[in-house]
Design brief:
Elements: E1 15-18, E2 64-67, H1 85-93, H2 100-115, H3 125-147, H4 151-154, H5 164-192, E3 197-198, E4 217-218, H6 221-230, H7 252-273, H8 276-301
Length: about 300
């Protein structure tokens, strides 16, 4: 169920449509959850999804899209519902220091609950694409870090002497295994510690004024993975290395990116699980330790253990 990004109160929908000739809003019919999509020419007038970006006015039969007002705080439930991902990314990294925490919390709530969150615990297709892109950048960073090490640290390993395609396959498998170990550790610890399983939202046991249910708020395993992927967007910054020195990738720049990703992961899990900074940092730290251990064991087996 969507939530208000200001106070985290559940709402039935994030926007509605005012049709020509009507003075009020028309509540959309229930969402068709069948596997067959509804053809555009047979879609019911005013039919809208409960999550995601609203369609244009032309796509909703000339209706005017209005954002939903939160029944608790009386502010817009989600002011980012019509914003593109590039605008959301800018709000995450290019904000004033005094506004950073509030803006970051709002953007993460919008992404994790209202746009990318799914009730069926499936990964959103955009998250699948983001995860693939992050994996490829992780391969680039790891490979560059190992190649910039001193010659005596890689002399006993057969990996640098392999053909380029086999080297790429090795680092791709390495990074994929490290990522899986990190995600499985964080998901298991969050479930074992009961993080993200709250009976009611902020102690409010009443029903919503707009007819929605104030049901339990629980984080799903794929929801946790979504938070980790969204919080790892800083890994995309090394694309700027095309105008910087190649040797810097495995040095201070690579370590700076890792620290930035860790901080963003803590923030994303804190907002998703509502567990505070200590709990989120503990879970993220355990995940990074599992990631490091898998990478160190794998590289040690091929004679590159000192490079990680």
């Amino acid at each position: 169920m969507p939530i208000c990004i200001e106070c985290r109160y559940p709402v039935s929908r994030l926007y509605h449509v005012l049709h020509s000739g009507n003075t009020g809003s028309r509540k959309p019919p229930p969402i068709n959850r069948s596997t067959k999509p509804t053809p555009p020419n047979t879609a019911k007038k005013g039919e809208l999804p409960a999550r995601g970006k609203p369609k244009s006015a032309a796509a909703v039969s000339g209706g005017e899209v209005r954002l939903t007002q939160c029944p608790r705080c009386k502010r817009f439930a989600d002011k980012y519902v019509e914003h593109d991902y590039i605008v959301l990314f800018i709000d995450l990294v290019l904000v004033k220091p005094q506004e950073m925490l509030i803006r970051m919390t709002q953007v993460y709530r919008h992404l994790l609950f209202n746009r990318l969150g799914r009730d069926d615990d499936e990964l959103d297709p955009s998250i699948t694409r983001l995860g693939t892109l992050l994996l490829l950048f992780d391969v680039y960073l790891t490979w560059s870090q190992i190649e910039t090490q001193l010659p005596h640290m890689t002399a006993s390993s057969p990996i640098p002497q392999l053909p380029i395609l086999l080297q790429y396959a090795f680092y791709l498998l390495l990074c994929a295994t490290m990522t899986i170990a990190q995600h499985l550790t964080v998901r298991w610890l969050a479930q074992a510690a009961g993080l993200g399983a709250r009976g009611q939202v902020e102690g409010d046991d009443s029903r919503q004024e707009d007819g929605g249910d104030d049901g339990p708020v629980r984080s799903t395993p794929n929801g946790i993975s979504t938070a980790l992927f969204v919080g790892s967007c800083m890994k995309l910054f090394p694309i700027l290395m095309v105008v910087w020195r190649y040797d810097d990738v495995g040095g201070s720049v690579g370590r700076g990116v890792e620290w930035a990703v860790g901080v963003q992961n803590v923030e994303a899990l804190r907002i998703l699980l509502e567990c505070g900074y200590l709990g989120a940092a503990s879970v993220v730290g355990a995940g990074w330790m599992a990631r490091w251990a898998v990478g160190r064991l794998t590289l040690g087996f091929v004679g590159l253990g000192e490079c990680l």
